[in-house]
Amino acid sequence: MNYKYHIDTKVYRIEPYENYVRITGWGFDVNNQNVSFVVKMNGENVEYEMKSIKRLDVEKKYSRKYNVPVKSGFNIKACWPKDREELEKLELFVKSGEKINKICNLNKKEIDKIKDDSTIAYNLDYVRINNAKILVGGWTISDWGTDYVKISILDENKKEIIDDVKLTRMSRKDLVEVGFVEEKDIECGFTIEFPYEEEKTYYLSIADKKKRKRIELKPEVIRRNNKVEACRGFAKQLVKCINKKNIEKGINHIRKHGVKGLKEYIVSRVNASAMPYGEWFELNKPTKEELEKQKKVEFEFEPKISIIVPTYKTPINFLREMIDSVVDQTYSNWELCIADGSEGDAAVEAELEKYAKQDDRIKYILLEKNEGISGNTNAALELATGEYVGLFDHDDILAPNALYEVVKALQEKEYDILYTDEDKITGDGKEHNDPNFKPDFSMDLFCSHNYITHFFVVKTNIIKEIGGFRPEYDGSQDYDLMFRCIESADSIKHIPMILYHWRIHMNSVAGDPASKMYAYDAGKRAIEDHFKRIGVKAKVEHTGLWGMYHVIYETPGNPLVSIIIPNKDHTDDLDKCVKSIINKSEYKNIEFIIVENNSTEDKTFAYYEKLQKEYENVKIVKWEEGFNYSAINNYGVSFAKGEYLLFLNNDTEMITPTAINELLGCCMREDVGVVGAKLLYSDDTVQHAGVVVGFGGYAGHVNIGIRRDDYGYMVRAQINCNYSAVTAACMITKKELFEQVGGFDEQFVVACNDVDYCLKVRETGKWVVFNAFSEWYHYESKSRGYEDTPEKLKRFEGEVAKFQKKWPEILKKGDPFYNPNFPIDKAPFTLG
80 φ, ψ to 5°? Predict the structure, then answer.
């Protein structure tokens, strides 16, 4: 037996009703053999309870080498009767067949060290200072029951502070699932916040009817500890990252960007741990005071917003919560238009009647029969009299400031369409999870899946002019409607705030996507019809992921594609690149423009001659000046005969035979200016899947290092979507557009040139597209060499400074395709 394991915690609890030992950790047999545990106390075998736990950290660390079980973690609890002799020896064994290994062995002295006879157990997840308040979060239970635990804040004289202390109790399902607390104690979580004075000391008091715990809270100590913890966390993450592969990457990074660049890179990578969403949500939701202030705001433009809801046998508690969330809005000029297709559900009808009598802004109609989701929603739409319509599902919840934020945005401009971020809540409404932090409007992302969903608000005249919802698209009726609204809209506004809560329960698509496969077929048809209406020839395929689509664009006329490849020596790399395209590519109307850049090896020129003799569509042109990536590519373009330019590094290799078809098909759209590919390192991890402007004061790849089959944030590494930039290591653009914007800016000799070009194209109103289905290997830049001298490093830093001077607005406002709730100084797509 070859058993890998680690013991995380050991505790011997002395409680009023029982004594027990709890051991947690993880382990698995590397040969995939089944194992069991044996617990001995004072030399006797004893019974125990065990819960298996999913350990993603273990899976991540060992899955490439071993077949790690899904639940490799364990939580073992073994009781020792109170009437027995004192516990003096504890042993934990793991057994496979006839083989048995001891993995834990404690004597009396060691048992005494882990003994805990307190009636209170607690843990502080965080203690921090934010906006002149001290915030504490954690959990606590008592032997007497959670209801007997009192949590309070004491001043320096140990007197309880009552005013301005906000205490919130929370469900901690995570602790129940791993066996730390029982189901009856699930409400053991808490957050508490209170204002502080700098020179004073405060205490967090946790007490039950027998014991009291006091934890000292000094503002200056909290600040110091937070800094120390940040450094300690950095160091721990750094140690985890140290391995042969990363050491090699570090050396290469120094060569390219110098020691300073390596430091910035390490900081960005090891500080990748994200704040848990539940914690983030509690910290960022509006306070009662803020909501009260919003109610008093008078806007210059105060449109009526008609919220339309189709109801169908809605559970009464969900119905009430849905309506209450509208009634509780801090913006008051709204109407709630409900069409009920329950066909005589007395309870629903009574509830609707009661609310309508209480508030004349609530309208409802009882339909003679259920007309389906589209028919019912259209009936609700007929009741709408407001300037804007908001789509709302009958079992979901609006954040109390949702309409306020919509109307606030409308003060900038009377947008045709607005949409917000959203999350999901459990059926009981207690837990928020799975947030969708969206980009500003992204046409290609929307054609890949309905990322907008909720909360969607549109001008009433638009939704009525397009004819409302169409029953033949039921299941994806909102997707179809949004396409038609977008086609009629001149302006679309994204509000990057969680303002809609999509409820997960057994009847919702959110909880069981497989229950509505027909919806995904309807979604496919909605995309196909959109392209028919706008005159783009394309077909749509399911990707195998729920509600995600692959749009395959035709290439009418099969135009010539000029592939521009700068090269200096490294003929083996160049040969692999060219041959992979010639031998694999399904798209054949191509020419190669290889820009010879100061090669020194005789074999290089011999290879050029051989290549041109072997292939009629290969042309070698000679660049005789010093290295300048922008100038070299501009020079190569001057020889290109194609309508489309594919810029390609010489150390790339085509993977998918349709790679050029994918890039070209996208780029032939009138609204697209640049298309980039998905690039992989040789170990099948991602090198490029989109670029976001702002990282490191310049730009960065957002999906770098994830596995080829990893989804990335919200599946964006697996589907087509828009970014502000893509890398020119493999990038296609229209030749006419390239010349229109002046090609690559030659002041950017080494860096920034591709991002700069993409931003110039964006200024013309064209999309920059990341195509996830055009896959290539990229073996890293070899021809140019590395930034391994002071002169080269100075040049690189100078180019970044020029970029910052040229593009200050996007650096100041933030990349529109990257949600501002993700800090730009943390790892991509993480909260902080």
Answer: -125, 110
Closest CA to 743 of 630, 642, 650, 604: 630
Ramachandran area for residue 209 (φ above 0: left; ψ -120 to 50: alpha; else beta): alpha
Exposed, middle or buried, 426 (CB in 10 Å: 0-12/13-18/19+)?
A: middle
Look at the chain and count its residues: 832
Q: CB of 304 within 8 A of CB of 387?
A: yes
Give residues with Cβ within 8 angstroms of 294, minimum separation 6. 286, 330, 331, 401, 404
| Whole-Å CA distances, 103 to 30, 33, 96 | 16, 17, 13
Phi, psi of 758 (to 5 degrees): -60, -40
Report the candidate in 723, 726, 695, 704 with the shortest Cα–Cα distance to residue 803: 695
Rounded CA-CA distance 527/479 in Å is: 8
How does DSSP assign 420-472, residue by residue? Answer: EEEEEEETTS--EEEEE-PPSP-HHHHHHS----SSEEEEHHHHHHTTS--GG
Number of neighbouring beta carbons within 10 Å of residue 243: 9
Q: Where are the beta strands (DSSP E) in 54-175?
A: 73-80, 90-96, 99-106, 115-116, 120-130, 133-142, 150-154, 166-170
The mean pLDDT of 225-244, rounded to a whole number, is: 45
Running DSSP on this structure, what letter comes out for residue 816?
A: T
Residues 6+ apart with CB under 8 A from 137: 124, 125, 126, 189, 190, 191, 192, 279, 282
CA pair distance 349, 354, nearest whole angstrom: 9
pLDDT digits (tens, 9 = 90+) for 73-101: 899 999 998 888 889 999 999 998 888 99
Range 59-75 burial, b when 16+ CB lie within 10 A, else e: beebeeebebbeebbbb
CA–CA distance, 773 with 455 (Å, rounded to integer): 30
- The secondary structure of residue 496, as a DSSP letter, is E
Both tokens assigned to 64: 């490439």
Alpha helices in 505-591 (DSSP H): 517-534, 571-584
Q: Helix 244-270 and helix 790-806: axis angle, to 10°? A: 30
Rounded Cα–Cα distance for residues 709 and 429 (Å): 33
Query: Radius of gyration of the chain from Cα atoms?
Result: 31
Separation between Cα atoms, residue 401 and residue 235, nearest integer Å? 40
Task: Dig out the tokens for 730 from the structure.
Answer: 């493999």
Highest mean pLDDT of the ranges 12-16, 453-457, 693-697: 453-457
What integer best gives the mean pLDDT of the chain? 87
Give the C-alpha separation, 382 to 464, whole Å.
9
The answer, as to whether pTM is greater than 0.85, is no
Q: Return the bridge partners of 826, or none.
A: none
331: tokens are: 């913006």
Both structure tokens of 236: 């721990």
Q: Which has the closest alpha carbon to 166: 190, 202, 132, 130?
A: 190
| Coil, helix or strand at residue 333 | coil
Strands 767-778, 652-654: parallel, antiparallel or unpaired by DSSP? antiparallel
Residue-by-residue DSSP string for 588-642: --EEEEEEEE----HHHHHHHHHHHHH-TTEEEEEE-S---HHHHHHHHHTT--S
What pLDDT is attached to residue 516?
64
Secondary structure (DSSP) of 187-209: GGEEEEEEE--TT--EEEEEE-S
Q: Could you give the percent of the chain with pLDDT greater than 70? A: 89
Cα(796)–Cα(781) distance, rounded to whole angstroms?
15
